[in-house]
# Entry
Amino acid sequence: MNTIIEPFRIKVVEPIRMTTPQEREQLLRDAGFNVFLLKADDVLIDLLTDSGTGAMSSEQWAGIMRGDESYAGARSFYHFQDRVRSLTGFDHVLPTHQGRASERILFELVGGKGKVVPNNAHFDTTRANVEHSGAEAVDLPIPEARDPRNRHPFKGNMNVGDLERLIQRVGADRIPLVMVTVTNNSGGGQPVSLANLREVRAVCEKYKLPFFLDACRFAENAFFIKRREPGQQDRSVPQIVRDMFALADGATISAKKDGLVNIGGLLLLRDEALFQQACSLLILTEGFVTYGGLAGRDLEAMAQGFEEVVHEDYLTYRIRSVEYLGEKLVAMGVPIIEPPGGHAVYMDAAALCPQIPPHEFPGQAVVCALYRMGGIRAVEIGSVMFGAHDKPGEPPPKRLELVRLAIPRRVYTQSHIDYVVEAIAALHSSRRELRGLRIIQEPPMLRHFTARFEEV
# Structure
């Protein structure tokens, strides 16, 4: 059979509130043209993020009922720990309430003024936690990543030559660790090859630098490796996952992505001394080391999620669902990051609306138009999200102006996605009428979450 069906049946449904275009216009204005500030009840199809927005399985809900809520030494923690150790090969496993908590602990310990942290591409909270420590976050993507229409199979790869040049320029003593994000969220949800991870590891060994993964979407990345990398087709996803983690000295993970849960994260470490420091900071800010700011039921749900996420029938459905949306948009002439990524389709807002200059935020204009058209919530990844990091007095860097349509796991059916396609078709036909925006209120960090705008 050629049709890829959802590898599950629907057991519980949640109603969606319908809204009119007139209602949405007023709601958007009340929210300052920032869809983060909309009430979820006013959103028809929510593609803002795939983080913590998925549906849990019957086995995960059964685990929730089995959760041991003991403060210390709960059996739910040991179940969770055993599952993560088996999956990743790491002995030192710390639970946190979500990925950014793991990042905050890590960079409070290894960051600091004068330090430089290279990455293939930092995402928003990773960059914010690096810079909050006083360190500088540096992105080192390969050239193909900057070309939306280039169909390189591993556009998430780190530029290894640029990494070595950076180390030589600033000195290895200023680099506390090298990080690679899998899949590359800022660059279109693009995967990183196993060969590239090995090359980065070799450079780290040469200069005696720790190598870390931002591994929120490790299973999706492993599935792309299986599908696209020569010599990997006959290997299982769990084997490839183990190889990826074996190359790393540590990892931060938001379990709200490939953990298939609504809350939770991990910090994985090999270095004993760093682990002990992290334990002390975890107790100070998150909770005891066997619960890390989570309930025992959350740990049970994570343990089961990390079991289900490497099932290849699930991953086949997951990746194909995103490809389906991407193919429909390409067929109608909507410019996207090609090939479609693992968790989202990224529309190229700059190419879609060339009449809107970067300083008037074409991505945010498209996000607002999509909500107006169909009640669909997406997110801008461009000059709103990252422009606050531009250095005063210097010309802004050339960056991609993207709109991410992140697909929650196991939530929407094909008819929902077909509705999204129809709404984008209407947007595409009226794209020349879209107007830019200006910021009228913003916080000093992570401004995209709470900034308010007005139309130009």
Notes: DSSP finds 16 helices and 14 strands in the chain.
